[in-house]
Amino acid sequence: MPLNNLSNKQRFIRNFSLLLSSRVLTAVLTLLVNILLIKRLGTSIYGEFAFALTLSGYFLSIADTGLSPFGETEAAKHKSDINKIVEDISSARFLLSLISTVIIIFIGLLMFKDSPRQKSMLIVIAFLPLIYSSNFSWALRGIEKNHVILTTNLIGGLIYFLGVLLIVKNSKWYLTAVLLFLASNIITSAFQFGYIKKLIKKIKISFSYVSVKKTVKNSLPFGIFSWFSVLYISYPIVFLKIFSDNKNIGLYYITYKLMVFIFVIFNLTGNAFIPVISDAIKAKDNEKESKILSELIKFTYTFSIPVCFGGFVVSHNLIAELFGIKIIESALLLRMMIWAVIPVGISSALISYLMAKNAKKSLVKSAAFASITGFIFSIFLIKYLGVKGAAYSLNFIELIMAGGLIYFTYKIIKIKFDIINFIKVLAASAIMAYAVMLTHQKLILSIFIGMAVYATLSLILKTITKKDIKELRSLIVK
């Protein structure tokens, strides 16, 4: 059905449901892969793998330099200029990715001479930025072709999962695990490139310094924001590498992977939200902007709060059933880290709004403040509390980030916050968690009980209305 015939809420739900399906499927497969890896490689080698991915994350953000979010917002606002947008963004990403790949290889060769396993992992993972430069999910989100992202991510995720399942049998196969990770990204990017090429026919990669400089200059504020974000997210792993050991890195990283599985859902609300809010921004309709953003904030806390309460209650069962009793220490970490879901959900909504609004300075200031304060507190917490300190630092940093984004957003637009509805959501979540504790069932049944109790209470307390259900049903039928 044409997008013009959908309401803003239906467009948001349509975009969100496709992106959610894509990310959930790939996140499930990735989570299964990580479960296999930590069991087959062992906690220490898995920790080295986690460190290699974390370090490559720094250079992925440098290679991207904000080009993906900038390109997505530009594509959402100017769909008719998609050819030029894709060519400009692709050229800049390719050149920066090439530089990043070379730097990672040198880091592996020079800084990890005495750690051959870590060195070999870094040299192989160094090619990830170059591969990722051909990933066009940013453009597909901008032009609302989210079904393509769903299909390509599913194919790549399946290949990664099946490869690890069938090939990686023990710790001797650690390098194969890294190669399979790269292979899955190559296949995903290749399919997305093929689809974009059908729309554009020909993609020219320009090596013009002036052209690349102009594009990077426009995306740089988003890039600086991304750099700071990657920095503060990776502090726990980096400082665990300095003050602790690979085992604790492995324990933290596998718990964080569970958190990422949840974060993905709320990050996607922001991705789905950009094309919808962009129309209101383009029309200079402040009232509509406020209404749409307020609805998104309500949607975010309506689902993030019960996730926190529920996750806290089922954490022990979750870790035991997924990973076994050997790494049950992760259950305590999960109980601590699960509360980061609320600030992450709010941050995702506000980041998307500020990106669409082109409020570059606000994004950079928020991320810079979170990064600087997070650096200081992470060193202190991890040095003296170890892996528990890493969990505390994650919560602290995400709270600081959300606080900064709220401050800068309120300077631009008024958000309507229904305190009564918020209290109802808290009450429903607390009752749901208590009900799950009382029943004391296994993991899957506990989750279903929690969902049933929360859904019933939401309808009774009217935190989810009949109008919301009617719009969702109408979209599904259409």
UniProtKB/TrEMBL annotation:
Keywords: Cell membrane, Membrane, Transmembrane, Transmembrane helix
Residue stretches spanning the membrane: 12-37, 49-71, 92-112, 118-136, 148-168, 174-195, 216-238, 258-278, 299-320, 332-355, 367-386, 392-410, 417-437, 443-464
Membrane association type: Multi-pass membrane protein
GO cellular component, one term: plasma membrane
Subcellular location: Cell membrane
Family annotation (PANTHER family): O-ANTIGEN TRANSPORTER-RELATED (PTHR30250:SF11), PST FAMILY PREDICTED COLANIC ACID TRANSPORTER (PTHR30250)
UniProt name for this protein: Uncharacterized protein
